Every structure is written in C-alpha cells, then in structure tokens.
Amino acid sequence: MQAEKHLFATTPLLGSILRKRAVERLFSSGSREAAFALAGAVEEGHPEADAIFHRLLLLQHSSQPVMHTALWNYWKSRRFEELLKRMHASATLQSDLLQAIVAMPENDWGNGLLFMLWSILDRDDIAEKIEAKGRHAPALEMDALFGLVRGNPGRYLNLEDPDYSIFEKAWLAASGAQRQRISTTVLKSQDPRLVAAYDHAVKEGHDPQLVIEALKLCGDHDALLDRLHGLPFTCALEIIAFWEESSGRPKRPSKKAVVERAVALYHELAGLLPDSRSSAPPGTREIFSFWTERYHSDELLQQDLSSPDPFRRAGALFSAAQRRLVPRNRMQEISLNGTWPEKLALQYLFTVPDASSRQEHVSWLQPQNNIVAAILTTRLPGSLEESTLLDERVHASPGVADQSAQLQRKLLQLLSLLQGYFLRGLITVDSNDDAAEKNAVETEELTDAEW
Length: 451
Fold this sequence. Notes:
Blueprint: H1 2-5, H2 15-29, H3 32-43, H4 49-57, H5 65-77, H6 81-89, H7 91-102, H8 108-121, H9 124-133, H10 140-149, H11 154-157, H12 165-173, H13 176-189, H14 192-202, H15 208-218, H16 221-226, H17 233-246, H18 253-270, H19 287-294, H20 298-305, H21 310-322, H22 328-337, H23 340-349, H24 371-376, H25 384-396, H26 403-422
C-alpha cells in the first residue's frame, strides 16, 4: 500500500505533509491492513501517535466494521497493552475508552471484548453500563465472574454447573481484589449451592472459616458436618458448640445421629472444664485473637509477610498459614531459622518438624507432651493409629477418677465419634500371604475400635 510507505516519511519540508496524507488514506480505506498499519504506527512512536490513537479509539463498528473489528482484535492479541498504557496516562482517554467500550456491537464478539476489558480494568463505570443494558458474556465463566464480583450470584446460579467447573474457571480468572468480592458474595448469599461450588472449586485458595460461616448462615448442616474433614479438632468443638446453641441439625438420619451424639458429649464435657478465667490481663488482648481479627485484608497480609517488624511478620504468617497461603517448604524454613515470634505462630498451629535440630534457644511446650493438647491439635479425621495411641495414653494415665482424667476420656470419646464418621468403611491393605487362592481378599471386623 502506497500510504504505508509514507507513514513515517522524513523528507525535509514534505515529510509532515506526506505523513498526514498517508494517515488520511489509511483511515479512509477502512481496510483490515490499514487498521494494523495505524495501530502499529502508534506502538512504534509515530510523530502524530496521540492523534492517530484518539481517532482509532473513536472508530464506529456501524460505519467501518472491517477496520473496527481488525483494530480491536489487534489490541486484544497484545492484551491491550498500548490501550491500557495510554489510558492510565490520560483522564480524557478514559472517557473516550468508556464510550468506545459501550458502543461495542451487541453480539458475541462485541460482548466478549466488553467483558474482557471489564475484567482487566475492573471499573465500576464499565460494569454499570453492562448492567444497564443487560448484556451477557458469551463465555459462561466470564458471565459468572461478573455476577459474583458484582454481588449478583443469580448470574451463576441460573447456570447448570453440576461439577462446579464454571465456578472454578471464574475463580481462576479473577484478580486478588475480585476474589475478595466473590468471597463476600458467597458469604452474603446464604445459598447452599453457591457455598458448595465455592468450597469445591476454590479448594486451597480460600479461607476455610468463610465456608464454615456461610454454611452456618444458609443452614446446610449436612455440608457443615462434612466440612469438618481436614480441620483441627478445636474447630470441630466450636461448630459442635454452634449446634448446641442453634439446635440446627443435618437432614440425613445418619448425619443427624452423629451430631446429636456429639452435642450430648459436648454438653457432658462442659461440666468437666475448669473454671474459666481471662488469659489476658486488663488492658491487653490475647495475641492470636488479635492476629485473626487484624488480617481480614489479603493486601495487608501480603504487606506484613515481608515487614521488618518480626511481630507483624508473625501475625501475617499466623493468618496466612491458616488459609494455606504459605508453601510448606517456606514454613519449614521459618520453623528452623525464623525469629521466635514467627516460630511461635507456627508452633501454635502445627507440630513443626525438626525444630530442635539447630540448637533451638527457645524451649517450646509441645502438644504431644500433653494428652489434652494432643487431642485438641488432631486434624480430623486423624488416623486409627493416632486414636489407638491416644486411647492407650488416656487409660494409662494416673488418677482415673479425677476431673482431669474424665476430661481426657470425654474429649477422646468425642474425637473417636467424629473419626468413626469420617473413617467409616475404611479399607486397609497389608502384605499378608495366608490366602489359599490367588487374588483372594480377606476381610475381618474391626472389633477393638470404640466408634
């Protein structure tokens, strides 16, 4: 194309005139090639780049559909880098961009671009225009993402998503700030299906406590019982206390029976607890409770994980580890070489491996040295071997009739009840070769477990 040859003309005196003529011819041609040439010229620093870009942004699909489509596809292929760079540098362009986005044709192509730009920019003015016109993204996961971020779960709940794959894709496409808003939407929805999708699809990337609270709000006690799997026994006690206070129960008879028995044991347990007393002196607060309340914001959490203040790092580590946001190898490294406040946070949450291998200067009280602490720190469902060992220690301890021993036995009963629910139908495999026939399977009843 002759116009392209003069697009960067530098001939003395005539250069500016030739460039302007070339730009006009390219715009008037309305071709795909012209769109590519002009967009490329802007990226290459054309002397009149600002004016060219402004005219490109104001192209209308109704009058120049070929050039308009080619231009936006070109920008899309480059993740809108030039567009975003210029928009952030100019308030005027932000207004022009909004007009250009809103004027996108109401077909799959136009809606796809519109929602993609919204997800990248995350601007309320774009979202409001989408809602005002009732537009929907052609990709189901993008449409679901928009609704979940904007507090409108109906966009997702109106879809068929039996395996939660749509929700999972929406979550993976969301930014950190958008994920926080999705979590809020889930919590406020009180919809069991939405909570189940969140819990299943998000897996390790969410705060388990949010799921617990959402299940409580929506009254899905069957799912609440199943959600105890993988949580520390202390968390299970808090939920059993909730069942005792609220009188809520699962619908399935087998699950309801487990909860009824757990509540009864918990009620008996309450009478064996020592008199409560405040662990924090007047004017102070319990540190772990303070950390839990402080780090609701992921932004603050990430900021304090690298703070020069060891107590801020410890608090952020405490909250991040609970949400499983810290890699295991990182936690192991901190448990060996971190400051003592950081080690305190990890010691409180976990039985940290090999903490004494580097001449540790702090003497930690390990949960395994105390029967009650060992029970409380068990992560459900635990294992049959752990339960058997705890049972042996409880019954071997002196003072069978005193209150402390009764407390230990009652806690173990409650733990065993939940283990029995989660480990029912457990199959174990060993290397026994007593079978008379090849490929034979030997079965036996487990008679020594009190479930």
